[in-house]
Amino acid sequence: MIKAIVTDIEGTITRISFVKDVLFPYAAKHLEHFVRTHQQREDVSTQIHAVREELNNPDASIDEVIAALLGWIQADKKVTPLKQLQGYIWQSGYEEGDFTGHLYPDAHDFLCTQKTNGVALYVYSSGSVKAQQLLFAHSDFGDIRHLFNGYFDTRVGAKQEPQSYQTILAQLPYAPEQVLFLSDVVAELDAAQATGMKTLQLWRDGQPQSATHPAIDSFNHFEAHNL
Ligand SMILES: CSCCC(=O)C(=O)COP(=O)(O)O
Ligand SMILES: [Mg+2]
Fold first, then answer.
1. What's the gap in Å between 31 CA and the centre of ligand 2?
2. What InterPro entries does the annotation carry (predicted)?
């Protein structure tokens, strides 16, 4: 019996191209100005400090910090200070109406149905908790933050590490087998499965497929008894 669902965002409930072709380019375009303008802000300076730690260079100049961040966006590195800064930058894009948070309609229907059925909903994404909440506050379906019971990001660890899912489970009032993890990425599903969580892979938009986890191409085909 599934009592809680932990869902990935990109490639699972949100189209990959929204993240790669809208959010990442927006962050790349605005990052330098944002970091230079706000580098004294406490939350921003904390992340700049964390970038210097990642670089093993406490003396890295602000130019070097910006270059590293832009390189990480280009390479889609899930480095925590980059993901935190992206959340700050995307805020103005959402608030100024430059874009809304993409959600597949079947994902929206599914989340609403599960919520109505009493299943607790959580999010685990490489995007920061702030970025997750922005996407859901400004989604294609309006503000849907009320659907979710909690949010996790890379501060609990990388998504391909079983320990990250142990950390999440330790914060939930459910046994591992009562929790279903949703993702498009097999390595993430493997890590969740190693903790005893149930898994379901989403095959979206012709993404590469493998049959190592139960899989569906739309939540319209979700059947809990097949898990
Ligand atoms: C919160 S939307 C931005 C998603 C993001 O930044 C990202 O890197 C995608 O990660 P996910 O773990 O959702 O695949
Ligand atoms: Mg994903």
1. 23
2. Enolase-ppase_E1 (IPR023943), HAD-like_sf (IPR036412), HAD-SF_hydro_IA (IPR006439), HAD_sf (IPR023214)
